[in-house]
Amino acid sequence: APIPVAAPVEKKEIILPVPEYINQPYYYDKDENKLIRLENANALMITKKKSLGLKGSKQSLGMEAPSSKIRFTAKKDIVFIIKTSGDVIDLTSYIKLYQFVAADQRREVIINAKEGLLTDKEEAKGKLMSFSVKMISKDNYLIQLPEQLEAGEYGFVWVKNMELKEFTVFAFGIDWKSSD
To answer: pTM of the entire structure?
Structure first.
């Protein structure tokens, strides 16, 4: 019997989903080719002076609840998609990704610490994560992380105006493996 010849597989071009809301990062689920909204949380900017400023001061962002309800499993290439209103030139200077630390039923990250005259080697809480941005179409950008995120709490923060007392955080959590 003649051997059936497999028809050449046509490579389908994947059409990326487009975010519904602007200036809001969405998690991009590659397997399902869909976007997942992140938790929309409020964070308060807290400025603390230590020993009347002699030990410096620190600014931290704090959110209620020790962990995000929106969770993903740690994997190599976690990607987010964000849609802008078209007037953002360099997204990385407007939006920052922080790793938050859970403490006392809340999440916080120190974003600014000034050492005072009497330095205090207090452990830094959380950290700023780097990412790169790639334009995929007009006003739509891919946010790519250079390294795998470790398990923990994260949040994208718009930092255009650091004078604010309250910030919107698009929060999410990463778990090492999926919990069934």
So the answer is: 0.82
